[in-house]
Amino acid sequence: MDTERITARIKSTVEAWDAGDGAAYAAGFTADATYVTWVGTVYRGREEIGRAHQALFDKFLQGSILVDDIAEIRLLGPDTAVVTSRGDVGKRGAEPAKLTKVQTYTLVREADGEWRIAAFQNTKRKALMEKISFAFAPDTAPAWG
């Protein structure tokens, strides 16, 4: 049941992204959430996340879609979960062929019973660097590819 609600929370952020709605996107985060982009920008708080994303949706990410493929949900207690996923941004009608980013979400169940994202980290994968590392040190290759 909790994993379904957690999945639904992430799905709602994807839908808000696809609609270009910064406020709806930020609604899935806690009031004091921390959000780290793949370029290293850090946003703090639901209000800043919403404002910044609306600006992005209105300019650089206009008409974009978000793809987020959940790989694992780990419950760390009754009110905390860590989600790992692969994802990327594409254009409507042109879903990305490869998911080049890895996301980590920390979600908490708040007093109203809703699961919200308290922390988010997005990392751009460096496939060539991974291949080189794994070729020279095979034991560094993770089980989750």
Features:
145 residues; alpha+beta; Nuclear Transport Factor 2, Chain: A; six-stranded mixed β-sheet; 32% helix; globular
Give structural notes.
There is one protein chain. The protein is of the alpha+beta class. The protein has a single domain (2-140), classed as Nuclear Transport Factor 2, Chain: A (Roll), CATH 3.10.450. Helices cover 32% and strands 39% of the residues. It is built from four helices and six strands. The protein has helices spanning 2-19, 22-26, 46-58, 127-136; strands at 29-36, 42-44, 64-77, 80-91, 101-109, 115-124. A six-stranded mixed β-sheet has the order 2-1-6-5-4-3, covered by helices on one side. The chain starts with a helix and ends in a 9-residue tail after the last helix. The mean pLDDT is 94.
What is the H/E string? Answer: HHEEHEEEEH
Number of distinct helices: 4
Instruction: Provide the number of structural domains.
Output: 1
The structural class is alpha+beta
CATH topology: Nuclear Transport Factor 2, Chain: A
Strands of the widest sheet, in order across it, are 2-1-6-5-4-3
Proportion of strand residues: 35-45%
First CA to last CA: what distance? 27 Å
Mean pLDDT: 94
